[in-house]
Design a protein that fits this description.
Elements lengths: L1 E3 L1 H6 L37 H7 L1 H4 L9 H5 L3 H9 L12 H12 L55 E8 L9 E3 L2 E5 L4 E6 L5 E6 L9 E4 L7 E6 L4 E6 L5 E6 L6 E2 L5 E3 L2 E8 L18 E6 L5 E6 L6 E5 L5 E4 L10 E3 L4 E5 L14 E6 L5 E6 L29 E5 L2 E7 L5 E4 L6 E4 L17 E2 L3 E6 L9 E6 L5 E6 L18 E2 L2 E3 L2 E5 L4 E6 L4 E6 L19 E2 L3 E3 L2 E6 L10 E7 L3
Parallel strand pairs: 30-35
Antiparallel strand pairs: 1-6, 2-38, 3-4, 4-5, 5-6, 7-8, 8-9, 9-10, 11-13, 12-13, 13-14, 14-15, 16-17, 18-19, 19-20, 20-21, 22-23, 23-24, 24-25, 26-27, 27-28, 28-29, 31-32, 32-33, 33-34, 36-37, 37-38
Amino acid sequence: MRRIAAAALAAGALAALAGAALAQPAATPKPGYVVPPENSAGLYPVSGEPIFKARCAQCHEPAVGRAPTRQQLAGRGPEEVYDALTGGAMKPMAQGLSEAELYGVVRFVTGKSPTPNVAAGPDPNPCRGHAPLSPRGPWWTGWGRDLANSRYQPEPGLKAADLGRLKPKWAFAYPGTKNSEPMVFAGRVYAASMAGKLYALDAATGCVHWRFDFHGGARASMSVGRNARAASGWAVYLGDDRMVMRALDAASGKPIWETKVGDHPVGRITGSPALYKDVLYVPLSASEESQGNVGAYGCCTFIGTVAAVDAITGKLKWSRTILDEQAHPTRKNAAGTQMYGPAGGALWSAPTIDGKRGQLYVASGDSYTEVPHPTSDAVIAMDLATGKVRWANQVLAADNYVTGTVNGPLGTRGPDYDFGSSPMLVHAGGRDLVVTGNKSSIVYAMDPDTGRTVWATPKLGSGSASGGVEWGTATDGKVLYAPLADPPSRGRPGLVALDLATGAELWRFESPKGLACNVPSGRCQPGFAQAATAIPGAVFVGAEDGRLRAFSTDGKLLWEYDATTPLDTVNGVKQAPGGSLAMGGPTVAGGMVFLHSGYNGSAGARNLLIAFSVDGR
């Protein structure tokens, strides 16, 4: 792990960017990358093609389920593919490979070798000065801004009437893909990437205060809180795709502590940790669902888990699965590998905190095996002090699903109707409710004391493994805004507004079909996969085709922007394009809207952090 300070940034500020890649000096390898032996021609001695054909092609040529195609893999950065092979979703397929073989596979897939010094060196545009943190200023921290995960900004610093004049003020190009939702605090914007970098940028100008480098990647949103061990008094908390939590000084980026909160071989932190009373509640997930065609993989053993971590010290307080039964041997697959179950119920979204009742709420994904899993596809209440499950409401049983067939569950395969959207704790109709939607396109409201379903909508769209409500709803306290990611060929992609107290549909925006699309990697869909964000009088929602729209609370279109539009960036990339919009939605604070554009699997400058303001001022 390395912290790149502002002084180091300044030293290389004039180093130009060649194309999309950030300039890096030739020293100090990134921790975790090993330089394999080279022959006299300067090429790695092992061809990756036969290895790819033997171990990977069955999932990528042609693509199975949601696995990327061979062509899509070619657009990813070599470091990202290397990470997937050594510690991510593809680790089981790479078992036993030497470093030279790993580099050969990466070179075959991407046309490039992982660069040992990828994390060293300066980013252009360092800040000339570093004003003290101003914690009383505008902010958006965590996934949903508040503990209830409302995704509502009550003090945006701009009015709904101003949204039609929003223009980019600055843009910052950074590597990685599926990068984190921007966090705003004390005049700075914090953004983490799947390329293993955490940036602290100036909110007004986009200059770089500091950068922290780590092995792995991160797409979970961050939180910030008081921490006496930080020189500034404030710490940023980051979870990554290696199940590691970190605390860093919010002013300087200096590491405070690092804790591994899980040890599953393909485990990760996708949902954003929730910070409450100096405890981080960390949701854990895993990529076992993608191991369906790996005959040598003993599928499946992961069960959704919440880990509670002391935010001051990093000490693990407790860790509890959402199911008391642990995975046990069941049968063998066609390759003779031992299978296990129950498994699944991954927690893809942020926990919601209910301090009054002393509990948190999480929403789980599907089951991976045919063994019954009573807390998959469920909303679950857990005790804040112990993690004990107080209640669980499973909305769909036997949703047994993995990609591929070798390790697929026996019997009828489920529709893959995960909950990827955080529960929201709301007060409507004179009572408290826990409300969320899933990929079935149904939105549910439950009693926070018992878990009983109070109301549920009919299917708002077709729902599918990549449709329905994917990453998040928003509410202004009266209306719930549910984005639908349905494919247009068989669904109703768009945005639906619901009465928060009853679930009655108030209005709907149907996504236009046939619009021009500049998103690479096959994500040219008009559905709204990105989480919605609400402000007084308006709601923002982003589509997979790269279009960000703002609507009035009665459904009128106020503003639209194509986030794939090339922009000159403050760190020196000319005409850098953005990409698809999904997962973390726009964050709003201090009269500005901050957006991560690029969920399309591309690397280098094909990912932008865009800052919008009224008239671009």
